[in-house]
């Protein structure tokens, strides 16, 4: 029962409390395969304190109890406990949940079915012909196998070829044709694995059989369409461009990427059938777990990649490892400096795509950043600038800035800006925001102003973060942007915190049915012997 779990949670909090504590507020998520917890004890004069021990086992029990009682999973929860032993547990679906990190507060998902479009979907499509050629690919592949056999001292055992009928069926299931040069390789051998043993022929990756290629595409389709990490991480995220630029779409995943080789650690080589403007259909890219900032360009075709492999063997750039395994040793791909954390350097690298300026003394001059024509993300953290004019000519999509003076005019009509976190030292005129065509996310919790009339005009805004006072002003004026999919209730910069109850109230005002929220109150006594009940029970939502 939820009431019993709540009593045990409170007992654990009281038993593990530090000396002199005045209150404990913990919150997080439970269920759905995991749990999380943040917050802690409040001790006057102490900045931070530890969390109670072994709460995750109790959170598993909480998730199970709520699932049985309400059918919710996963859930968000908040426990508020006092030294007297009095406690209050609030539980709701994960549509409302605590947000950690800068700004904190609570996130409310109003439209769970909406995901932000990836920036690469707006890129101009490539029109060039494929660079790969099936006859060249087959010739190079046979020469590659012969050269490997000479190094190893024997031919490598490989699977039999795929049939034309199997390739046709695979393409039907994929919903798109394979590049002709990759198709030609499958007519020589169906991948490079026999049983669980792979030869790792292509890019030191295990080349998937045709059956596994199709299964990987089908199983990973949702991931390929978009790896979604939640609004708190996604609303102002960017995807880096590749080198060369505008060859691969700036996406975390795309249905036009067909993974055909795997490294066994969550990374893949894929053929790209939907390239960006300067790309070629059938080009090879690297994507997966270690490519969270964006895909990496590898070669303009499978044919070209095979030529690279042949050249490495001819130069002796390989290692013959244990278990008769041959590993190619090509030069590391160096895209140049793409991200800087700290401050603006004296010489800004032209390859820079993201910069985080932290704790700058004085005002920050953004002028030197014009030397980075591909800059996508600009964060001024605890740093102030007076002039946004340099941003005007840059393709910045995510901007976090503290502005001294409040002039947003340089952002008017900005063709790339999608997410803005604005803090101001003086009232700002927000009118220029209504002219930014792709603005989908806005955080004004540090701006001290909302200008309801302007926000009501932002028809394309999908995410908005405000303080409780700002939300009240917006709702009282009936000026909520019409297409919001998620919002954040932020704590006031002056230190006015917000609670789960505050978030539920806001969610209700925004149209969400929160009447079924589960609330349990009661009291315990702490100590080594465990919790002792003072009475508890559910409180109707």
Automatic annotation (TrEMBL):
Annotated SMART domains: SMI1_KNR4
Domain of life according to the entry: Bacteria
InterPro entries associated with the record: Knr4/Smi1-like_dom, Knr4/Smi1-like_sf, KNR4/SMI1_regulator, LRR_dom_sf
Domain Knr4/Smi1-like: from-to ranges: 161-308
Listed Gene3D superfamilies: Ribonuclease Inhibitor (3.80.10.10), SMI1/KNR4-like (3.40.1580.10)
Biased composition regions of type Gly residues, renumbered to the chain: 523-541
Coiled-coil parts of chain: none
Annotated region described as Disordered, given as residue ranges: 522-541
One Pfam family here: SMI1_KNR4
PANTHER family membership: CELL WALL ASSEMBLY REGULATOR SMI1 (PTHR47432)
UniProt protein name: Knr4/Smi1-like domain-containing protein
Organism: Streptomyces carminius
């Amino acid at each position: 029962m939820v009431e019993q779990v709540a009593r045990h949670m409170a007992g654990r909090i009281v038993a593990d409390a530090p000396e002199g504590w005045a209150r404990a507020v913990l919150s997080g998520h439970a269920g759905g395969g995991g749990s999380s917890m943040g917050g802690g004890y409040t001790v006057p004069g102490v900045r931070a304190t530890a969390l109670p021990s072994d709460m995750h086992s109790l959170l598993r029990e909480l998730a199970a109890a709520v699932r049985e009682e309400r059918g919710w999973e996963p859930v968000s929860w908040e426990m508020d406990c006092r030294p007297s032993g009095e406690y209050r547990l609030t539980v709701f679906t994960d549509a409302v949940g605590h947000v950690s990190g800068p700004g904190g507060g609570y996130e409310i998902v109003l439209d769970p079915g909406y995901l932000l479009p990836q920036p690469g979907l707006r890129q101009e499509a490539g029109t060039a012909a494929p660079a790969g050629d099936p006859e060249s690919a087959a010739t190079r592949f046979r020469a590659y196998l012969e050269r490997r056999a000479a190094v190893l001292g024997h031919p490598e055992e490989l699977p039999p070829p795929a049939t034309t009928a199997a390739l046709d069926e695979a393409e039907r299931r994929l919903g798109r044709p394979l590049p002709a040069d990759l198709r030609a390789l499958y007519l020589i051998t169906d991948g490079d694995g026999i049983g669980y043993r792979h030869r790792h022929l292509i890019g030191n990756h295990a080349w998937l059989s045709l059956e596994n290629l199709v299964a990987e595409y089908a199983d990973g389709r949702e991931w390929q369409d978009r790896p979604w990490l939640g609004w708190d991480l996604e609303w102002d995220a960017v995807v880096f461009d590749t080198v060369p630029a505008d060859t691969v779409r700036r996406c975390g995943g795309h249905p036009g990427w067909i993974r055909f080789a795997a490294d066994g650690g969550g990374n893949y080589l894929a053929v790209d059938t939907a390239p960006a403007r300067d790309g070629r259909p059938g080009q090879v890219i690297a994507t997966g777990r270690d490519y969270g900032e964006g895909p990496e360009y590898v070669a303009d075709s499978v044919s070209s990649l095979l030529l690279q492999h042949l050249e490495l063997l001819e130069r002796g750039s390989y290692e013959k490892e244990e278990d008769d395994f041959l590993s190619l040793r090509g030069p590391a791909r160096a895209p140049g400096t793409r991200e800087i954390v700290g401050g603006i350097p004296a010489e800004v690298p032209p390859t820079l795509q993201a910069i985080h300026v932290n704790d700058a003394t004085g005002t920050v001059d953004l002028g030197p950043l014009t030397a980075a024509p591909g800059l996508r993300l600009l964060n001024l953290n605890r740093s102030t600038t007076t002039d946004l004019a340099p941003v005007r000519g840059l393709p910045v999509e995510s901007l976090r800035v503290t502005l001294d003076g409040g002039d947003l005019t340089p952002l008017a009509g900005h063709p790339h800006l999608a997410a803005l976190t604005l803090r101001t030292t003086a009232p700002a005129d927000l009118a220029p925001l209504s002219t930014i065509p792709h603005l989908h996310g806005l955080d004004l919790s540090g701006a001290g102003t909302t200008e309801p009339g302007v926000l009501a005009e932002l028809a394309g805004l999908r995410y908005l973060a405000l303080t409780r006072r700002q939300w009240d002003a917006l709702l009282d004026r009936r000026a909520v942007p019409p297409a919001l999919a998620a919002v954040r209730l932020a704590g006031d910069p002056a230190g006015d915190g917000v609670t789960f109850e505050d978030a539920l109230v806001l969610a209700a005002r925004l149209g969400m049915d929160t009447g079924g929220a589960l609330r349990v109150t009661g009291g315990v006594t702490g100590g080594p012997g465990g919790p002792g009940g003072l009475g508890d029970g559910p409180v109707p939502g």
